[in-house]
Amino acid sequence: MSEGFASIASYLPRMAARQPHALAIVHPDGRDKQGVTRYTHYTYAQLDSQSDLIARGLQALGVGPGVRTVLMLRPAWSSSRSPLACSRRERFRSWSAPASASRA
Q1: Which tens digit of pLDDT belongs to each residue from 71-87?
Q2: Hey, what long-range contacts does 21-28 have (CB within 8 A, 24 or more apart)?
């Protein structure tokens, strides 16, 4: 990150503008009938658009700077959009940790 990006939230829109079709995230998404791993792909443009949509939705619900909010997310790469949305353009401060697989 030698180009002066302060956080992934500020990095994402810049990469979406520079390389919208480049892959940002590739993660396993189950298996097909033959047992071969399936993958889900997100480009920088898709990730940027989806995180911005989530951020606008949270803001419409009243979530913003100074509002304490907890997001319960499944441990998956696809869940990366919500923390990105929370830290989007420094609207919110975000901290995330993987959810526990155990149940009480």
Answers
A1: 776 666 555 666 666 66
A2: 21/45, 25/77, 25/80, 27/76, 27/77, 27/78
Is the per-residue pLDDT at 104 higher than 50? no
- Cβ 41 vs Cβ 23: under 8 Å: yes
The four Cα atoms 84, 87, 92, 95 give a dihedral, to 10 degrees, of 80
Token match 């959810």: residue? 99
Helices (H), the chain: 8-18, 44-60, 81-86
Does residue 89 carry a pLDDT above 60?
no
pLDDT tier at 35, thresholds 50, 70, 90: very high
User: What structural domains does the chain harbor?
Assistant: 8-90 (3.40.50.980)
Whether 74 and 85 have beta carbons less than 8 Å apart is answered as: no
